[in-house]
Amino acid sequence: MENYVKSSTVKEDLGLDSNVVKCSSHGPLHGYVHFSKKQLHQNGKVVLSGIGGAVNKAISTAELLKKDKRLHQTNHIFYISIKEIWKPKENEVITYAKML
User: Fold this and answer.
1) What is the pLDDT of residues 12-71, one digit of tens each?
2) Is 0.70 surpassed by the pTM of this model?
3) Strand pairing partners for 6?
């Protein structure tokens, strides 16, 4: 990789609404529940999002909201595609690159 330089990164847009609560693994659970209740009261719906270790907090937040507000739940699973474009530093053609 020392012969290449990162040219650009292209991230796919999911087009989610503005009322998304993005959970992280470090934030307090009661904070997500409180913010989700406020979003639910203002907009009538809330979208919970979690990546990696934060999926557990997103699920726990959803379960606490369902218990408190007597709600139903609709699940949608999304993924984001990230494409990195690397270009050679020099103009010479490298026939292969070994990734470890």
Assistant:
1) 766 666 778 889 989 899 999 999 999 988 988 888 888 888 989 999 999 999 888 888
2) no
3) 86
53 vs 1: CA distance, rounded Å: 29
Contact 62, 45 (CB under 8 A): no
Cα–Cα dist 61/9, whole Å: 32
Separation of CA 86 from chain center? 24
Query: What's the token pair of residue 54?
Result: 């934060």
| Alpha-carbon span 86 to 94, nearest angstrom | 12
Cβ-defined contacts of 11-14 (< 8 Å, 24+): 11/80, 11/81, 11/82, 12/80, 12/81, 12/82, 14/78, 14/80
d(C-alpha 96, C-alpha 98), whole Å:
7
Backbone angles phi, psi at 65, to 5 degrees: -65, -45
CB contact set of 21 (below 8 Å; sequence gap of 6+)? 32, 35, 36, 39, 46, 47, 48, 49, 58, 61
